[in-house]
Amino acid sequence: MVRGLFDGVSLWIVGVASIVAFLAVAELGYRLGARSRVPEGEESTSDLGATIGGLLGLLGLLLAFTFSMAGGRFDTRKTLVVEEANAIGTAWLRTDLVPEPQRAEARRVLRAYVQARLDATVAGRRAEAMARSEQLQTELWTATAGAARAAPTPPVALFVASVNEVIDMHARRVNAALRNPIPPTIFGALYGVAILVLAAMGYARGLVSDRSHVATIVLTIVLAVVMLLILDLDRPYEGLLTVSQQAMMDVQKSMGSGP
User: On the chain, which terminus has fewer CB atoms closer than 10 Å, C or N?
Assistant: First the structure.
């Protein structure tokens, strides 16, 4: 599994740490500006204002780009849940085309497989459920191969194709959720630019002795919340923004094996 930035750290800890770090950087910039204050500093302040404006534009661009990337990944995960549920539902219906005893075995494995896929979304059961899913895929394919050998007919071929799709969907979901996070370098650049902006703004306020605690606190909180939201979108199984598994639950209910 590819690890993203702050992977394994609670989002609340990341949010509080970001606010504290941003406030500290702004205060440090203000103190440095206060030490560098000169009576005729208007020209220097104007140049610094242009620099701050450019940094703010770059920060906005990075925020929009990263948010779009995280939102796209979130939408992809939602789509894949529905597609996997549809694939499993199709395979379940096509078990009617399979002779016994493979039919009963395929249905048993599919019921267990849906439960394993639901368990994979629970933090404490994820690793075990992933291993269980792969084991059930082997059992499902064994039953499918047995059915194909026992009755090599076009209807059974349809069932084989649907089982292939079920196995492929597992790989797609794992890749989208666990193996393709937003690169840490992008988050690093985002935090780096945010720190430069806050330091430059604090420095500019220090030059003219214009200190506004409220404005600084509001800006740092807004930046931290937006970055926390991006991290939340990028994390598949924790936080406030999680992908609904209702489609999988509906398939489980249609199988008659609901909790």
Answer: C
